[in-house]
């Protein structure tokens, strides 16, 4: 998939990345039952690419009043552009903002987070939601071996059934510690941080093979971050960090940022939005070519935000949700980009699902397979 990624390049770049009808951003209409506008929520796309799941988030008015933290779980059906508020059972997370979320198979894992006001109540609990039973559970783990309560940490699934957690803050201290959570044993293990990134929060981490790459992050004070001319890489085989220099685009290097997103598209990482300092924003978007670590500035993201969320489906469809706009207004819009032509099966399901006049009985009469019908009308009873 790496060679097929295509975004509109900035006019100053030496390499123009071609576009076609598929490779463009779209903003679907926002359904009336969508989550309320928010930022700082956690999200992830399940492994089959059917749903984007959203938990929690934060809202305040443009004037900085009316502050609200959310504790709801939503799922967005990508094919039909439809939302559902998901009722769950079991002990659910109690922190609403800056958690970390990863979906593995049919299980959603959520770690850490804070409430409103930020930093007064922080968590180092690991929760799991069974996406079939829609039931939360708080995992019984030895917290003495894991991270202290915090928010704004990065958490990413490694190729070895481990969740890798780096950094974060408790609202006063910023951390550079590094942990692995074993999904088989539910045990924490502290990993070496020597040679790794400095203390920070709201950074992003992605895996490329057996190496974890940390991009961005900082703290909400002037000079709270560094230009992205350097990235830090952790090799899970050597158990060591490496500081790696990147190559600039003709437009230079991306500015420092936190509260951005970084999503892997094959041999590229798509970096979007974020904040620079307390009142400065980095609402541009970039590609990092993982083959030679060269930055490419790209344009065309129609809803630049920070404290938003982003993930990608297995067929290369990038989906962003929510966040804070430059006006300081929160949004609840979905923004979507297909980096490559989906399979014929996916195109058929998307085409039928987008036509909301169909009922299950119609699709049964058409002779569609039961699995297809469940993917087209997931919220309609059998």
Describe the structure.
The protein is mainly beta. About 5% of the residues lie in helices and about 35% in strands. The protein folds into two domains: about 1-340, 6 Propeller (Neuraminidase); about 345-380, no CATH class. The chain contains three helices and 25 strands. A hairpin with a 2-residue loop joins strand 15 (about 205-210) and strand 16 (about 210-215). About 45% of the residues are buried.
Key terms for this structure?
2 domains, mainly beta, single chain, 5-stranded antiparallel sheet, 25 strands
SSE layout and pairing:
Blueprint lengths: L7 E2 L15 E2 L15 E4 L5 E9 L8 E10 L4 E4 L14 E5 L2 E5 L14 E5 L4 E4 L15 E4 L4 E5 L11 E5 L5 E4 L12 E5 L2 E5 L14 E6 L4 E6 L15 E5 L2 E5 L12 E5 L4 E6 L9 E4 L4 E5 L12 E5 L5 H10 L6 H7 L3 H7 L6
Antiparallel strand pairs: 1-22, 2-25, 3-4, 4-5, 5-6, 7-8, 8-9, 9-10, 11-12, 12-13, 13-14, 15-16, 16-17, 17-18, 19-20, 20-21, 21-22, 23-24, 24-25
* Assigned CATH superfamily of the largest domain: Kelch-type beta propeller
Structural class: mainly beta
Put simply, the count of helices is: 3
CATH topology of the largest domain: Neuraminidase
Spatial shape: globular
Unreliably modeled segments: 9-21
Taking the alpha carbons of the first and last residues, their distance comes to: 36 Å
Tell me the strand order in the biggest sheet.
1-22-21-20-19
CATH architecture of the largest domain: 6 Propeller
Query: Hey, roughly how much beta strand do the residues contain?
Result: 25-35%
The number of domains is: 2
Relative helix content: under 10%
Question: Mean of residue pLDDT?
Answer: 89
Report the C-alpha radius of gyration, rounded: 20 Å
Note the run of SSEs as H and E. Answer: EEEEEEEEEEEEEEEEEEEEEEEEEHHH
Q: Quick one: biggest sheet?
A: 5 strands, antiparallel
CATH class of the largest domain: Mainly Beta
Count of strand segments: 25
């Amino acid at each position: 998939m790496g060679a097929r990624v295509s975004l509109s390049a900035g006019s100053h770049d030496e390499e123009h990345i071609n576009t076609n009808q598929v490779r463009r951003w779209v903003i679907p209409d926002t359904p009336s039952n969508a989550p309320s506008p928010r930022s700082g929520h956690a999200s992830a796309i399940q492994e089959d690419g059917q749903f984007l799941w959203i938990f929690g988030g934060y809202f305040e008015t443009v004037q900085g009043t009316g502050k609200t933290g959310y504790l709801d779980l939503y799922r967005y059906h990508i094919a039909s552009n439809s939302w559902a508020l998901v009722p769950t059972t079991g002990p659910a997370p109690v922190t609403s903002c800056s958690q970390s979320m990863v979906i593995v198979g049919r299980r959603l894992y959520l770690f850490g987070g804070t409430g409103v006001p930020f930093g007064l109540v922080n968590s180092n609990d690991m929760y799991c939601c069974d996406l079939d039973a829609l039931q939360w559970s708080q995992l019984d783990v030895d917290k003495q071996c894991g991270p202290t309560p915090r928010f704004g940490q990065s958490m990413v699934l490694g190729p070895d059934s481990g969740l890798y957690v780096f950094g974060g803050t408790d609202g006063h201290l910023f951390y550079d510690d590094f942990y692995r959570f074993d999904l088989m044993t539910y045990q924490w293990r502290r990993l070496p941080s020597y040679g790794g990134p400095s203390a920070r929060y709201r950074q992003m981490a992605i895996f490329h093979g057996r190496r974890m790459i940390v991009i961005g992050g900082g703290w909400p004070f002037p000079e709270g971050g560094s230009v992205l001319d350097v990235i830090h890489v952790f090799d899970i085989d050597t158990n060591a960090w490496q500081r790696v220099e990147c190559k600039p685009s003709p437009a230079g290097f991306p500015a420092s940022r936190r509260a951005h997103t970084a999503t892997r598209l094959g041999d590229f990482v798509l970096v979007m939005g974020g904040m620079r300092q307390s009142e400065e924003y980095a609402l541009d978007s970039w590609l990092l070519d993982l083959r030679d670590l060269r930055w490419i500035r790209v344009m065309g993201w129609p809803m630049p935000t920070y404290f938003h969320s982003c993930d990608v489906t297995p067929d290369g469809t990038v989906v962003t949700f929510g966040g804070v706009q430059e006006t300081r207004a929160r949004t609840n819009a979905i923004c979507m980009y297909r980096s490559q032509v989906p399979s014929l099966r996916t195109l058929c399901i998307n085409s039928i699902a987008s036509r909301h006049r169909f009922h299950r009985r119609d699709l049964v009469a058409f002779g569609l397979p039961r699995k297809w019908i469940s993917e087209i009308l997931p919220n309609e009873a059998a």
